[in-house]
Write a structure and sequence with these properties.
Elements: E1 3-9, H1 24-28, H2 37-50, E2 55-61, H3 70-77, H4 81-85, E3 89-96, H5 103-111, E4 114-122, H6 126-131, H7 138-150, E5 154-159, H8 168-181, E6 185-188, E7 192-194, H9 198-204, H10 213-230, E8 234-237, E9 250-253, H11 259-275, E10 281-286, H12 291-295, H13 300-308, E11 311-316, E12 324-329, E13 332-337, H14 338-341
Parallel strand pairs: 1-2, 2-3, 3-4, 4-5, 5-6, 6-8, 10-11
Antiparallel strand pairs: 7-9, 10-12, 12-13
Helix pairs in contact: 8-10, 10-11
Bound molecules: iron/sulfur cluster (SF4).
Length: about 350
Amino acid sequence: MKTVTVPFFISHQGCPHTCAFCDQRTISGARGEIPTATQIREKINLWQSTAGDRQLEVAFFGGTFTALPEEIQSRLLAPLQHFIQDGSLGSVRISTRPDYIDDERVMWLAERGVRTIELGVQSFDDAVLTASGRGHSAADSLGAIRSIKKCGLDVGVQLMPGLPGDSPALSLCSLEQAIFSGADFLRIYPTVVLRGTELARQFVAGEFTPLSFDRGITLCKLLLQRAMQAGIPVIRIGLQADAGLDSESILAGCWHPALGQLVRSLLYADLVDRFTSPGQQVILYCHPARVSDTLGMKRKNLHHQAERGVQMQVAEDASLALDELKVQSEGTKAIYSIIKDLHYSIYEV
Ligand code: SF4
């Protein structure tokens, strides 16, 4: 059954300090106020009225939930209990920092209906974490993931390739660590320089250069393919295009409002490049959920193939897996996979 997420943005609430890259107010487009019990109940009721038969999930995004005083955490979770008991609320998700999670805190949250914890891990490299002003170590992240898994909750890992001191190889190592440690899903946010942050100061002073757009999407492509190979869903690539994010607030870095689609469609473009030749007329069959990725944004992949001399048509085939394309040309048909048939090197980034 599909889930509808009822989001509450508690930007910066609980954060022990501000990380070098962070401006939650800009990222979430919301002010970080703690909602009252009435506001929480009203919002859930409102979303419930439009959710149809889909189950609701409440998510607290943006701050460091488990660093809030316990009384405030209780105040946020208490109004949810009635909805959990009557079955209308299927799960609760919170975001937090790895250094504010341990066995006891996870148990406490689980008893109050929390089923998913998202951790702002960002990198598993201690030098990168220090240079980014995170204030926690890779060991903290591994310990937090272990605590969450031990209690049977789902754990999401957020990674930020391109932070100070990072490299494509280190970003890939961080992804491998996330996979190895048992992350249930990932979010990949290539680093962007937001106005007003410490990173912006470093950027303007020439002390930090973020990944360019092209290198950023190439790196994300490699990371996404690796996650797909490991069977770990990547539920988001790139910061959400909310009200506060625009060319004014973003000084530099790899950002696009539909970065995830751009990255996914690059994988399909590479697969078609690899298995077609100029002069061919091909029909590409893909899973119905992947038509727009196969075509590319504004049909970019179609135009690219036309430039190569490949005439390409796209059709749906629900029997294909999400990572597969069936290439039909002049009486031949073959199925190729993004996971198995593309081979990248990190040195391409
Ligand atoms: S802990 Fe997260 S929300 Fe808080 S300042 Fe750091 S990045 Fe921003």
